[in-house]
Amino acid sequence: MRTHSLVAAAALLLAAGANAQAVHSGTGADDPPPPKDILTLTGPLVNSSAYVAPTDPKYNYVEVIHKSYLFYWAQRSGKMPAGQQRLAWRADSFVDSKGFYGEDLSGGWFEAANTMKWGGPFAFTAGQLAWTVIEFGDALKVVNEYDEAVSWVKHGAEFLLNTYTVDAATNTERLMGLYGDSAKPSNASTGSTDIDFGYFGPPELYLEGVPGGLPPTPYYCEGSPTVNKGCTDIAGDYSAALASAAIVLRPTDPVFADKCLNAAKTIFAFGQKYNGTYQNAATHPESGWANYREWYASNSVTDETALAATWLYIATGDATYLQTAQAALVNQDYTEYSWADKGIAAAILVNRIAPDDTLATAIKTFFTRWLPGGSIPRSPRGLAFNGLWGSLAYSGCTSAIALVHAKVLAGNATEAPFAKQLQTFAVQQVNYMLGDAGKSFVVGFGTSPPILPYHKSSYNSILSYPLRGQDQGVVGDDFLMSRTPNRHIAYGALVNGPEVTDQYVDNRENYVYTEVTQDYNSALTMATAGLIDYYTAAKFTPFSDCNLDLGWAHPNATLANKPKWADGDCYHTCAPCIKLANGTYVSSSSATASNGTSTSSAAAPDATNTNVAGLPVNTNSKSGSAAGTAAAANAGTVLAIGGALLALVAL
């Protein structure tokens, strides 16, 4: 969730060339006029204290998570994988992107409507996608979403692996922490000029239309015997994402998992050795870092240190990391869970590993703030509201970790009622997003979904870009001020969300309501995976791309790029899935006569070995190196979680 002020946000809209109204932020005589297109939601008013979660799932959470993963295809950067280009309106972009030291920075995904890659929020998203698999992987397997989930974990890790370099000649370590220029300074009298934020065309044509024709600039954290330009916060984010990715990927790709784990350890050590933050303008004076501070301010480095050390402990079994995490959590104040504040996530994981009364009390205090009657306000229709910018993502992130923590508490008779409160909270919050408030806030899902999301490439795409060649001020005015629905469906994108009054502004002009971002969707992804697990995955059937409008019927679509999926592929085509004897669904092309059954089979999933966070253990996989062997040796440590003994392993 961005932390930029609403007044500044309105000013940026004006700077982009739009005659936009400021976002309403009060009722005084000098306040700006209220925004246009205000919608007051029509869902029933709710007494959240009396809310009872439906016994059966009210919404198809598998459809939601399928579309949420599809959103990352809309955001994908670099060369599209051959034969897998899901969306006709996206293609190769930024394929020649290089850092100053030769790093390949083409991959990963874009932050939001723009093409920025802010290191911290990117890594938070990558780590959240990995945690989703670690925590709820069994459920994802049952509903045929596991492979897609793992592929995005690997894609994010591949980008992060390219961000760290060493100059042996000068003993200089560098970590690329930001790629792109949202704006550039012009002069003292006029301030800055939007660059990336001033481009409103498709990513594929960025250099053709971006103001000034400026390619993205990489910005570095750096450390050497004579320089300390450290970014302990960004290094912690990267390390946490790579360590958790190593856990996810070890069963299927142990060699790549070792690369992730080794990089996670190296980057973590770099961050600790050169302690610092990009929030320090004295050490990070460049314009890119100034923009970073404006949009994604760093509040501290201890939460990133704690979370990275926790995942490194889970991945390696090295007690030094656990001690580092515990030390970083001392006197932490847990107020939210977001890209900016991850301490509560580390606390939940550490308390599972080494239960501690003080930590357990702090965790309970955090969640009590969010539950009915707590200090977090509630909208009339039940949204737990922690702030306008990213209102749905705040509640989504909290819902995700509430479901994680509830699994820990559920097996404890004393704590089981509180676990139920956490689960009820998550159901209410996610259902609010999906339609309980009177409309869906997820593009392409449910009743009255958003059709004017602040998402540039689904409005101006390589297939449909009517103002191509015109000045970006003109293109931007059209994008912001027009009420033309986006020309393509950015399936699964979660918008910012409504006010605490349940009022929502339905246009692209006031993007504090309608913007979509990478981290918002990581919250939606993890929370819906948790609800599939909560309701038991056996209650759901797989969802597929069948009948989705992915743009291939557009007259300008390049049909030669349309994927030719295998016969029987039930993830991408209309082919039915086959249900295996263990309850897991697979494509018929993957099933065999010996283990496939009809889709009406009622077989329950087989019991599996699991690690500390619930990831099924592949007992047949072999570690690719000594590092993997050492991690596997950690399997002797067991924890009582949810009434079962779960082996602490790094797979």
TrEMBL record:
<dbReference type="Pfam" id="PF00759">
    <property type="entry name" value="Glyco_hydro_9"/>
</dbReference>
<feature type="active site">
    <location>
        <position position="515"/>
    </location>
</feature>
<keyword id="KW-0732">Signal</keyword>
<dbReference type="InterPro" id="IPR012341">
    <property type="entry name" value="6hp_glycosidase-like_sf"/>
</dbReference>
<dbReference type="InterPro" id="IPR033126">
    <property type="entry name" value="Glyco_hydro_9_Asp/Glu_AS"/>
</dbReference>
<protein>
    <recommendedName>
        <fullName>Endoglucanase</fullName>
        <ecNumber>3.2.1.4</ecNumber>
    </recommendedName>
</protein>
<keyword id="KW-0119">Carbohydrate metabolism</keyword>
<dbReference type="InterPro" id="IPR008928">
    <property type="entry name" value="6-hairpin_glycosidase_sf"/>
</dbReference>
<feature type="active site">
    <location>
        <position position="506"/>
    </location>
</feature>
<keyword id="KW-0624">Polysaccharide degradation</keyword>
<keyword id="KW-0326">Glycosidase</keyword>
<feature type="domain" description="Glycoside hydrolase family 9">
    <location>
        <begin position="61"/>
        <end position="527"/>
    </location>
</feature>
<keyword id="KW-0136">Cellulose degradation</keyword>
<comment type="similarity">
    <text>Belongs to the glycosyl hydrolase 9 (cellulase E) family.</text>
</comment>
<dbReference type="GO" id="GO:0008810">
    <property type="term" value="F:cellulase activity"/>
</dbReference>
<keyword id="KW-0378">Hydrolase</keyword>
<dbReference type="GO" id="GO:0030245">
    <property type="term" value="P:cellulose catabolic process"/>
</dbReference>
<feature type="signal peptide">
    <location>
        <begin position="1"/>
        <end position="20"/>
    </location>
</feature>
<dbReference type="InterPro" id="IPR001701">
    <property type="entry name" value="Glyco_hydro_9"/>
</dbReference>
